[in-house]
Amino acid sequence: MSVPMELEYEKFIEQLTDTKPQILIFGLAICLFMLVGILRILFGGKRGKSFLLYGPSGSGKTSLFAQLKSGTPPKLGTTTSMVANEATFPIAGSQGPAVHVVDLPGHPRLRTEIDNYLPTTRALLVVIDSVDFLPTARNTAESIYELLAKPSVQKKRVPILVVCNKMDRTSAHSIEFLRKRLEKEIEQYRTTRSALKDTKESDVGGLRLTKKNVPFSFAICTNPIMFCGISVVNGDVSGVNDFIKSNA
Ligand SMILES: Nc1nc2c(ncn2[C@@H]2O[C@H](COP(=O)(O)OP(=O)(O)OP(=O)(O)O)[C@@H](O)[C@H]2O)c(=O)[nH]1
Ligand SMILES: [Mg+2]
């Protein structure tokens, strides 16, 4: 090494050793933060802005949409939705920011519309009828499973809230009953599906839903899945409000 270069090198080492440890830690923290950001973009993807109301026909999605928007359930009742109903508004009664909410029609033929909305979905709310649940249990379980199997839902770990509506009715099933029944139906569907298609559960959507050889349960899903009980007619939708607030 020539003399001037040697001097430069020594100066550089001197500067490095002079640097305060706090500055080094700060620099490392920034690098780590950037690395996490890059990994999230590459492997996770950013979630969108919409809160999607999804679920069987008649479960109360449009009623809930109106309640969230205006703070009261629709006075003139509702009719079966034929198209998606969407708007951006601050949730009535909460101090949070405006959020974009989409109410999807529950009719099985119109439900496929969900694929258009998933890329911009922030969180999913699966609204079920806690009274008239059993006739739709299998269908609902299947559609929850299909949702969970979608790479866009899994990769972005889209949070899901299963909203058990109509809790004002005395014949409403308990949240625990609804959760267990859905888990049972999903497990059955998953087993039949893998037997028919000769695929392993881990192949569904190219990603794994739950741990291998473990019966399906919401608790061990890769997506955060929560349950809450509400009654739109009584204006008791705090479980939904809290979920939206914590994910807005
Ligand atoms: N008892 C009771 N009835 C409710 C409640 N919420 C909604 N309903 C009633 O359930 C029926 C269906 O409600 P909608 O909001 O139209 O249901 P939906 O899920 O939008 O149905 P689709 O548009 O067909 O998918 C209406 O008669 C509502 O008045 C509730 O909390 N309790
Ligand atoms: Mg509707």
UniProtKB/TrEMBL annotation:
<dbReference type="GO" id="GO:0003924">
    <property type="term" value="F:GTPase activity"/>
</dbReference>
<comment type="similarity">
    <text>Belongs to the small GTPase superfamily. Arf family.</text>
</comment>
<keyword id="KW-0931">ER-Golgi transport</keyword>
<keyword id="KW-0813">Transport</keyword>
<dbReference type="InterPro" id="IPR027417">
    <property type="entry name" value="P-loop_NTPase"/>
</dbReference>
<dbReference type="GO" id="GO:0034067">
    <property type="term" value="P:protein localization to Golgi apparatus"/>
</dbReference>
<dbReference type="InterPro" id="IPR024156">
    <property type="entry name" value="Small_GTPase_ARF"/>
</dbReference>
<keyword id="KW-0675">Receptor</keyword>
<keyword id="KW-0342">GTP-binding</keyword>
<keyword id="KW-0256">Endoplasmic reticulum</keyword>
<dbReference type="Pfam" id="PF09439">
    <property type="entry name" value="SRPRB"/>
</dbReference>
<dbReference type="GO" id="GO:0006886">
    <property type="term" value="P:intracellular protein transport"/>
</dbReference>
<dbReference type="InterPro" id="IPR005225">
    <property type="entry name" value="Small_GTP-bd"/>
</dbReference>
<keyword id="KW-0547">Nucleotide-binding</keyword>
<keyword id="KW-0812">Transmembrane</keyword>
<dbReference type="InterPro" id="IPR019009">
    <property type="entry name" value="SRP_receptor_beta_su"/>
</dbReference>
<keyword id="KW-1133">Transmembrane helix</keyword>
<keyword id="KW-0472">Membrane</keyword>
<protein>
    <recommendedName>
        <fullName>Signal recognition particle receptor subunit beta</fullName>
    </recommendedName>
</protein>
<dbReference type="GO" id="GO:0005789">
    <property type="term" value="C:endoplasmic reticulum membrane"/>
</dbReference>
<comment type="similarity">
    <text>Belongs to the SRP receptor beta subunit family.</text>
</comment>
<feature type="transmembrane region" description="Helical">
    <location>
        <begin position="23"/>
        <end position="43"/>
    </location>
</feature>
<dbReference type="GO" id="GO:0005525">
    <property type="term" value="F:GTP binding"/>
</dbReference>
<dbReference type="GO" id="GO:0043001">
    <property type="term" value="P:Golgi to plasma membrane protein transport"/>
</dbReference>
<keyword id="KW-0449">Lipoprotein</keyword>
<dbReference type="GO" id="GO:0005794">
    <property type="term" value="C:Golgi apparatus"/>
</dbReference>
<keyword id="KW-0519">Myristate</keyword>
